[in-house]
Request: fold
Amino acid sequence: MAMKLYFGPSSPFVRKVRIAAIELGLDKEIELIPTAVVPGKPNTDYAREANPLRRIPALSIEDGEVLYDSTVICEYLDVRAGGGRLIPQDTARRWRVLTNHALAQGMCEAAVLLRYETWLRPEAQRWSVWIDDQWDKIDSGLEWFENHDEALQEPVDLAQITLGALLGYLDFRSPDKDWRQATPKLAAWYATLRERPSLRETEPVNPPT
Ligand SMILES: N[C@@H](CCC(=O)N[C@@H](CS)C(=O)NCC(=O)O)C(=O)O
Reply:
């Protein structure tokens, strides 16, 4: 296969790239390379071969070049598929989609930090103010999308894909978080989005232990 994606089955950032690849019709050209990354347990082979930051995803392309992070990879795939499909070229829409994407991406970052806080950090060292602050960022972002449903209109773009990956990750890691109640328009939009093959084929699962 032409490209290799360093991958983990639960990462929202990896999922974003996989959804983008399916939407663009490029997924059959990408081989998935299972890659274990855990903060505090450096995967030195991966750091040397692919991404010195030891984060997934990274994408190895034909000439041996390795691309990261998820946003750069999605932009690369969009260009490879002809350009302007997930990131509009038209300037007015382009900056709006990129800004909406930055919001959804920041929400994914907060959600992953929360996961590390509870999964990796010893209980006695957890800081509730910091945890609440991450949740507040996620909640503010959800509210913003609820109040700006023009951002959720077709065609599916990079911001919407990233938001879909975030919502899937919230359901996966924080099933008790009742985000649908507070943001019903967003919930209705996500119920439709998640029926797309690109989301159905990439539901998050735990990595093998
Ligand atoms: N900005 C990066 C974030 C990637 C990221 O944080 N991935 C997590 C997995 S969900 C990771 O690799 N964590 C390992 C670490 O931070 O050491 C992107 O968009 O690709």
